[in-house]
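Technical note accompanying the year-one report. For the benefit of new consortium partners, we illustrate the data format agreed upon in the data management plan: each record pairs a sequence with a structure-token string. No post-processing was applied to the example shown here.
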Amino acid sequence: MVGGFLVAASAVGTFAAYTAATTGPNRSYAVVTDDVGTGERLSQADLGLVPLDLPPEQHRLAFTELGVLDGATALAPLAAGQLVQTSDVAKPAGGPDRAQISLALDLGNALGGDPALLGEGERVAVIVTYTEGGTPRTATVSADAEVVRVLGGDRSGVGGLTVVLAVPPGDLEPIAQASAAGVVTIARTTGLAGGGTSS
């Protein structure tokens, strides 16, 4: 009876080992399918998924979906077939067609710095107010900016904060000019159809 049990146990162990050896990896990771140079932007056409067994330390640094790498920039050369890891790429906030710019603002011109209104991913319009010939003028210099990060500021109403925005490249110079020439205010437009309006 004991002998029969040992034979059965051995058979189960052999089957388990065989199954593990023949089923292969159960998770696939992103690799580049062609050589990619430093500074080149990735698209899904440059990528593929390859089944791999990775230890936990490497798994958390790799990518299992190609979509998250679409538009990312290579920070170092990548050879065809190479596993893509987080240190190899930079993913632009707001999408591949957006640049980033920062604004130093008083809390009163930045929704009080309230994180419920001015958090990451919120859409805002950048508005400048200046004086021309003694008359106040107001213009929207960026109608659909995305908040990337908010640095500094507190609820006391004292001091200011820095807001990092992702904007179309064409809005960079108007925003920089507005910051130097007048008082800049940001207005939350999240959820508005069509966002703000440019002037």
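Partners are asked to follow this layout when depositing records. The domain at 2-90 is CATH 3.90.1210.10 (Type Iii Antifreeze Protein Isoform Hplc 12).
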